[in-house]
Amino acid sequence: QANVEESGGGLVQPGGSLTLSCSVSGVTFSLYDMTWYRQAPGKARELIANISTSDDGTHYADSVKGRFTISRDNAKSTVYLQMNNLKFEDAAVYYCKAVGGPYSLYHGYEFWGQGTQVTVSS
């Protein structure tokens, strides 16, 4: 089974920036689609960004489009989420999910990290 671990969360002021990392081990990282989610207490989990195994295709939720950037470094088996111009509504636990692509050993299977806390406060 893949091991997924997020890091980089912390406290940031409104308008500030933060970069999250998600390290994946136990699988061939380049064959996995990667997605960032976030969830605040009492609220539903929200998909915010994903990046595919093919040509690094990306997609963003409207709420973060233009502010967040997802990227991956296959050599480091890591996906990143660069967050700029952070707002109070961005405060949440951010989760990373790996999903096996067509050529992966675990095609279609989901692997989740434990999450990393992002706090936006003045």
Shape: globular
Task: Give the SSE string.
Answer: EEEEEEEEEEE
Give me the number of helical elements: 0
Helix content: under 10%
Strand share of the residues?
A: over 45%
Main sheet overview: 7 strands, mixed
Distance between the termini: 40 Å
Class of secondary structure makeup: mainly beta
Our Rg estimate from Cα atoms comes to 14 Å
Total beta strands: 11
Overall pLDDT metric: 95
Low confidence ranges: none
What can be said about this structure in brief?
The chain has 122 residues and is mainly β. The protein is built from no helices and eleven strands.
Structural overview:
- The protein has no helices and eleven strands.
- By secondary structure, the chain is mainly beta.
- The strands form two sheets. Strands 2, 4, 5, 6, 9, 10 and 11 form a seven-stranded mixed beta sheet that branches.
- It is globular.
List the helices and strands and how they pair.
Elements: E1 3-7, E2 10-12, E3 18-25, E4 32-39, E5 46-51, E6 58-60, E7 68-73, E8 78-83, E9 92-100, E10 110-112, E11 116-120
Parallel strand pairs: 2-11
Antiparallel strand pairs: 1-3, 3-8, 4-5, 4-9, 5-6, 7-8, 9-10, 9-11
